[in-house]
Design a protein that fits this description.
Layout: H1 2-24, H2 29-41, H3 49-68, H4 74-94, H5 100-114
């Protein structure tokens, strides 16, 4: 159990550092890419880190695609994406560190409601 707790603490510390980078940057795109890369590298870890990594990968992948992906109105989408990156980072930092339910709910909302990924049918 101690190893799982250390994994969670290490994961949360690095995710917090990356969220702070997003907020401190004049252009959070590169910080968002770093956040996405971090999440991708964390796949396969113990729960709940693996679920959080998957959600953060989808979230930051979607938001950075808003800057560099094909869009009908690139300037408008990029402006939305930059604003959303800052909001996602601030909301992540505001979550209580030990509250796994709040993190899961945050990721569920961001992945499905904010970024628009379809929910899987639970049946």
């Amino acid at each position: 159990m101690i190893e799982v707790e250390e994994n969670i603490d290490t994961f949360l510390a690095e995710a917090a550092r990356l969220a702070l980078d997003v907020l401190a940057s004049n252009d959070p795109y590169d910080s968002g890419l770093a956040f996405m890369g971090f999440a991708m590298r964390e796949f396969g870890r113990d729960q709940p880190v693996n679920d959080w990594a998957a959600g953060l990968y989808l979230l930051w992948g979607s938001l950075t695609d808003g800057v560099d992906g094909p869009q009908p109105d690139p300037a408008a989408v990029a402006a939305w994406a930059v604003h959303a990156m800052r909001r996602a980072a601030a909301e992540w930092l505001a979550l209580p560190p030990a509250d796994t339910i709040a993190r899961t709910e945050y990721l569920d909302r961001w992945v499905h409601e904010e970024c628009g990924y379809e929910r899987r049918d639970s049946t």
